[in-house]
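[#protein-structures] MJ: dropping Cadmium, cobalt and zinc/H(+)-K(+) antiporter here for a structure pass
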Amino acid sequence: MNDLKRSKSENKLIITIILNLTISIFEIIGGILSGSLSLISDALHNLSDSASMFISLFSLRVANREKSSKNTYGFKRAEIIAALINSILLFITLVYIFYESIQRLIHPQEVSSIIMLPVAFIGLLGNFFSAVLLFKESQKSMNLKSTFLHIVIDTISSVIVIVGGLIIHYTGWFYIDPVLSLIVITYVLKEGYTIFREVVHILMQGTPADIDLSQIKSRLESIPGVENIHHIHVWSLNENERYSELHALINCQTLNEMDQLRDQINRVLRNEFQINHTTIQFEGEKCKITNI
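AK: finished. C-alpha cells for Cadmium, cobalt and zinc/H(+)-K(+) antiporter:
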C-alpha cells in the first residue's frame, strides 16, 4: 500500500479500535448484570480483537519503514507476523470460551434476557459499522483481512446472542446460552485456521497457492532461445509481493540476445504470474557469446 492508502487504513483502524473497546465495556457490564456467558464471551472476543487491532496498527507503521543494509527486504513482513499473532490470540480466546461453555452446560445459570438483549443489539450495531468501515481495506492486506474477519465474526456473534436472548425470553431455556457460544467458536475456529494456515505458508516461503511451477516451466521454455528451465523457486514476501529465482539453459549468440531473453522472462513472470522480482541464473553451454 502507498503512504496515502496506508494513512487512510490507519485512521479507519483507530476508529474501529475505539469503537470495539466501547462495545467490550458495554458487553462486559451487561454480561455480568444479566449472567449471560454468550454476552461475556462476545465481550472477551471483542477485547482480543482490540489487541489484534493494536498489533495491526503497529505493523502498518512498521511495514512503512525504509529498507536498510540489515533489512534488505524492508519491514513488509511485519503485517504477516501481525496476522500470525492475531490468529494465535484468537485461538487462546476460543479455548477459554469453550471451557466456560462446557461448564455452563453442566451447571446452567439463569440469564436475564431483559438486560442481555439491548446490550447485544448495541454490540451488533457497533460491530456492523466497524465491518463496513474496514471492508475495502481488508481487500488490500492480509493483516487487515484478519482484523476484518474478527469483526465479521463479532457481528455474527452479536446476532447469535440476540437470537439466544429472544429464545431465553420466550422459553426460559437457559441452555441455549452456552450452546450458542459453542456454535460461535466452531465457526470462528474454522475461519481463523484458514488465515493461520495461509500466514504460516508465507512465512515458510511456500509456493503461492495459485502458482503452478510446471506451468511456469512450460511457458518459459516456449520462449525462443530458452532450452530448459530448472531450480525454480517462487515465494511471497507478503500477500502482495512475489519473488522467484530460477536457472535457465539458453541458446544465444550475443550479449544483446541474452539481455532480450532476460527481459522476456521477467515480462512473462510479471504479467502472467504476478511475480514482482526475479533472479535468473543463465547457463549458456549452447551459447557462442560475442560482445556484439
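MJ: nice. The domain at 213-283 is CATH 3.30.70.1350 (Alpha-Beta Plaits).
AK: one more thing. The helical segments are 3-34, 37-63, 78-106, 113-138, 142-171, 176-203, 213-221, 255-273.
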